[in-house]
Design a protein that fits this description.
Elements (H helix, E strand, L loop, with lengths): L3 E3 L3 H11 L5 H19 L5 E7 L4 E7 L4 E7 L3 H10 L4 E2 L1 E6 L6 E7 L8 E5 L2 E2 L3 H12 L4 E9 L1 H10 L4 E7 L2 E2 L5 E2 L5 H6 L3
Parallel strand pairs: 1-11, 4-5, 4-6, 4-8, 8-10, 9-10, 10-11
Antiparallel strand pairs: 2-3, 6-7, 12-13
C-alpha cells in the first residue's frame, strides 16, 4: 500500500507561501518551484537502495554505504511538470527523463493524451512522476496508467499542491503509488481549480498568462 506524505518542513512551507502569492514574478516562481522539488526529492528518495563498499580515507581504509545504482527516472506531466524536473535532477543528476503530454478538456475536465515517451529501461527504474497540481486526479491517474503500460513498476508521484478530491482519486486508482505533497489544500471550486491553490501552475512557470 502506497503512503501519502504531506511535508511539514518549515523551508517547504515558506516556499509554498511564496508561490501562492499572486505578485510573485515568473522568474521567482520558476526558481522556487525548482527549490521545492529539490527538497521534496531529498525525502522521497529515502528508500533508494544502498550497498557497502570499501574505500580509503586520508587516514585508513573503511567501509561506507553508497547508492546501489542510480536507476532513477523523472517523468513530468507536460507542461507544468517540467518546472519540477530540474529540482529532481539537482539531487539525482544521472536520472533519465521521460515525458507524458496531457491536457484537461475544459468541459469534461478529463485528461487527453497527446504525447508519451519513456526511457527504454523504465521497468528497471524508480520513477518520479511530477506535476505541480493534483486537482481532480484525472491527469495523474492517466499519466501513471501510461507509465505502467510501458513497464514502470516502482512509482512515486510528487506534487506541490493537492486537493483532497484528487488525493482520493489517485489513491483509489493506484494504491501502490507513494504520493508526496508539499501542501494539502481545502477543496476544488466549480471550475476544478484548487482552493486556495496558486492559480494555473503552467502559466505561472512559463509566463504565458
Amino acid at each position: 500500500m502506497g503512503k501519502i506524505y504531506v511535508f511539514d518542513h518549515p523551508l517547504i512551507q515558506h516556499k509554498v507561501a511564496q508561490i501562492r502569492n499572486k505578485d510573485t514574478a515568473t522568474r521567482d516562481f520558476r526558481q522556487i518551484v525548482k527549490e521545492i522539488a529539490m527538497l521534496m526529492t531529498f525525502e522521497s528518495s529515502r528508500d533508494l537502495p544502498l550497498k557497502e563498499v570499501e574505500i580509503e580515507t586520508p587516514i585508513c581504509k573503511t567501509k561506507v554505504n553508497v547508492l546501489e545504482g542510480l536507476d532513477v527516472a523523472v517523468v513530468p506531466i507536460l507542461r507544468a511538470g517540467l518546472g519540477m524536473v530540474d529540482g529532481v535532477l539537482e539531487i539525482i543528476p544521472n536520472a533519465k527523463v521521460g515525458h507524458v503530454g496531457l491536457y484537461r478538456d475544459p468541459e469534461t475536465h478529463e485528461p487527453v493524451e497527446y504525447y508519451c515517451k519513456m526511457p527504454e529501461d523504465i521497468d528497471k527504474r524508480k520513477i518520479f512522476v511530477t506535476d505541480p497540481m493534483l486537482a481532480t486526479g484525472g491527469s495523474a491517474v492517466a499519466a501513471i496508467d501510461f507509465v505502467k503500460q510501458r513497464g514502470g513498476k516502482d512509482i512515486v508521484f510528487m506534487c506541490l499542491i493537492a486537493a483532497p478530491e484528487g488525493i482520493e482519486v489517485l489513491k483509489k486508482a493506484h494504491p501502490d503509488v507513494d504520493i508526496y505533497i508539499a501542501a494539502k489544500d481545502e477543496c476544488l471550486n466549480e471550475n476544478a481549480y484548487i482552493v486556495p491553490g496558486l492559480g494555473d501552475a503552467g502559466d505561472r512557470i512559463f509566463g504565458t498568462k
